[in-house]
Write a structure and sequence with these properties.
With 682 residues, the protein is mostly helical. A 3-stranded mixed β-sheet has the order 5-7-6. A two-stranded antiparallel sheet has the order 1-2. Strands 3-4 form a two-stranded antiparallel sheet. A hairpin with a 4-residue loop joins strand 3 and strand 4. The protein is globular, with a radius of gyration of 28 Å. Bound molecules: zinc ion. The site of zinc ion has 4 residues, from helix 21 and helix 22.
Length: 682
């Protein structure tokens, strides 16, 4: 390698760059005319914004690039647009094809998974594509010719854009960030470290004791925080004898995790007993450990030293490193709301507050209270008693399903028929079915769409040796909904750059529309109005709970951005304050108890980079879409209309779909109806 080159790259001054832009602007204007003025100006600024002289080249390279890649008339713009659209579809499609093949041994029921299968499964062939596209300057070609947009522009101008303008917007957006590899690596490290911390955070339940030394949980029960702890609270509603004491104990454990007063020693440790009320720790008096206690076990009740918040801080500090490289969304909060969700944070906040402060909350709470026969306690935010029973036993359903679908092929062959029952025209049902391949899954099942039109969607479904069971069938119907959406939103959308739906909440909502028809598709009676009403109340209460959790997550990220130098200890104190504040505003009036911290227990808050708001958005969108489909009476044609709108903003999509933007109205109206149905009208 040469010691130094003749040209010393990376030495362009800002003045030189500016001077170069000015004369390029003049040159291009003279060549293409005044009509191209705004495009020339925008394009040049966008290229300069991302150009790194030390990597991308000096002034001569920059000017040469601009001269040969600016498309100055409509035919050239058209050619450029169509070429990128076609080739990016090929790139995405084939990359996805490789990923799918590499994961097959892990995903499908194909026998043992070897160590190298896991490496194949974890490999992402597209990981360096974005870097490559800046390196070979294809990214700059897009940035020179198509404008980047802010969410505000997409929301305000988007309704007036043509479909082609939307496709161009999505094309430019692919290159809206140029995050250096070392920054991406730092983010991945922080994500992995915090995920590892969360994945090991188990509580050995048999070792929770009360003041009398009583144990209420069975031996060997090891629950992961927060998911398993929360699900145990839900399950304990069925335990007439000691359900309540178990629920209260779990709440106490959760609060100690949040406040970090939990003794460090009791985390994932079956060798000590812990009284979460007094916080006393002792050598375990009961043995259910898989291995003997370490000889040097030193029993102490020293608290966990705010590690939970140190982990969260690490994710924040890593995420912040990307800020300077993301000009149209310069914070993690912006990237989550403006890019991933495309719903402005302020608007979502208002919608969530509308749900959690709805006058329907106390009415539903009253109903829960009367069903429980006692005043509500804070853990009742996870009340699960609205889930109605089925007319059929699981065994009856298993038998019906196994007879109908003894193998994957039987289900595949029935897809056109199932789609016809859902109201799709016969030719459309056949067309869609031709785009779906059914594979036997190793796990419970999933849907894997294609990313290019020459590929097919894959429906992965679980088949037991005795045939499909009801659970597997129920999942298969849900996944088939995904596959139908994936097929239509790829093959029938006008521009492949608009392939898909606005975000995951939409594809989930569409899949739930299918799943809700599973009994009818078997020729059995659909759930009655009473059952539907219970399901609605269950969803409403779940949205009330997760809405508060999301509001805490959002406030904590704002606090971190406002206090960039904070310590873990300070973040702990702030999180507790925020959780109490949300509780006192939206939950205390219903539960009659103040200063509860439970809303901060979710593990996603620690390792998932502001992910929690996705859950309540999902509930709201699901309701809007389900109501819309119900209104039209026939699923098929409406489903086709919705799935073909593609990846525009959520509000615009929802307005085309239902006449209204994303919001809480559908959920609140349905809840009101459900309360009436159950005769609880005040
Ligand atoms: Zn799904």
């Amino acid at each position: 390698m040469a010691q130094s080159s003749v040209l010393t790259p990376g030495t362009i001054t800002a003045e030189e760059m500016k001077a170069s832009m000015t004369h390029l602007q003049g040159e291009l204007l003279a060549k293409y005319g005044d009509a191209q003025r705004p495009r020339i100006s925008t394009g040049l600024h966008q290229v300069v914004e991302f150009w790194r002289p030390e990597e991308d080249g000096d002034i001569t390279v920059f000017e040469g690039f601009v001269r040969s890649n600016f498309a100055g008339d409509q035919p050239s713009i058209d050619t450029l647009f169509h070429r990128f659209q076609r080739l990016l579809e090929q790139l995405d499609g084939h990359m996805h094809e490789i990923t799918r093949e590499f994961r097959n041994q892990q995903d499908l029921d194909l026998g043992p998974v070897r160590s190298y299968d896991e490496v194949f499964g974890g490999y992402d062939p597209a990981a360096h594509v974005l870097d490559d596209f800046f390196q070979n300057k294809l990214a700059f070609t897009v940035l020179l010719n198509f404008p980047l947009t802010t969410l505000e522009e997409r929301i305000n101008e988007g309704p007036k854009w043509t479909r082609r303008q939307w496709a161009e917007t999505r094309l430019a957006q692919r290159f809206a960030k140029r995050v250096p590899a070392d920054v991406n690596l730092a983010i991945a490290h922080a994500a992995a470290e915090s995920a590892h911390y969360i994945a090991g955070y188990n509580i050995w339940m048999h070792h929770l004791v009360d003041d009398q030394g009583q144990r209420f949980f069975p031996p060997k029960m090891r629950l992961l925080s927060h998911w398993n702890l929360r699900d145990e609270i839900k399950a304990d509603y069925a335990d007439q004898q000691s359900g309540l004491v178990k629920q209260r104990t779990i709440q106490q454990v959760m609060e100690r995790i949040i406040t970090q007063t939990i003794p460090q020693l009791v985390v994932d440790n079956p060798h000590v007993d812990w009284n979460p009320w007094s916080n006393e720790v002792k050598q375990a008096a009961a043995n259910d450990a898989p291995a003997p206690a370490p000889a040097n076990l030193k029993v102490t009740s020293a608290p966990e030293p705010s590690t939970r918040y140190a982990m969260l801080l690490k994710t924040y500090r890593a995420a912040r490193l990307a800020d300077p490289y993301s000009p149209t969304a310069p914070s993690l909060i912006d990237r989550r709301f403006d890019e991933d969700r495309e719903i402005p944070e302020e608007r979502l906040q208002a919608v969530l507050e509308q749900v959690v402060s709805s006058p329907l909350v106390p009415q539903v709470a009253q109903l829960i209270q009367s069903r429980l026969g006692r005043p509500l306690e804070p853990f009742d935010i996870w009340y699960s008693g609205f889930r109605p029973g089925s007319k059929y036993t699981e065994a009856q359903l298993d038998e019906i399903v196994a007879k109908k679908y003894p193998n994957a092929e039987a289900y595949r062959a029935d897809i056109p028929n199932l789609l016809k029952k859902l109201g799709f025209a016969p030719d459309r049902a056949q067309y869609i079915a031709n785009h779906i391949i059914v594979d036997p899954a190793r796990g419970s099942g999933h849907a894997m769409g294609a990313e290019m039109r020459s590929e097919k969607a894959h429906l992965r479904t679980r088949i037991e040796k005795t045939g499909m069971n009801y659970k597997g069938y129920n999942v298969a119907v849900h996944e088939m909904g995904h596959n139908v959406e994936q097929t239509l939103s790829l093959n029938d959308v006008d521009h492949t750059l608009l392939q898909g739906v606005p975000n995951t909440a939409f594809t989930e909502a569409l899949a739930f529309v299918f799943q809700g028809q599973d009994m009818a598709l078997l020729g059995l009676a659909q759930p009655d109005a009473q059952t539907e009403a219970l399901k609605t109340l269950n969803d409403f209460w779940g949205t009330y709970e997760i809405g508060g959790v999301a509001l805490v997550d959002m406030a904590v990220w704002h606090w971190m951005y406002d206090h960039p130098e904070a310590t873990a200890e300070e973040l702990r104190a702030a999180t507790i304050d925020i959780a109490k504040d949300k509780w006192n505003r939206f939950y205390a009036p219903v539960f009659g108890k103040k200063d509860v911290v439970l809303l901060a227990v979710y593990s996603h808050m620690i390792d998932s980079f502001l992910y929690l708001p996705d859950y309540p958005i999902g509930h709201l969108i699901a309701f809007q879409i389900e109501e819309q489909v119900k209104k039209t009476g026939s699923i098929g044609p409406e489903f086709e209309r919705l799935a073909k709108m593609g990846r525009i903003t959520p509000d615009l999509w929802m307005e085309h779909a239902t006449g209204k933007p994303v919001g809480a109205e559908a959920l609140l109206t349905a809840t009101e109806e459900a309360l009436k149905q159950l005769g609880n009208r005040p």
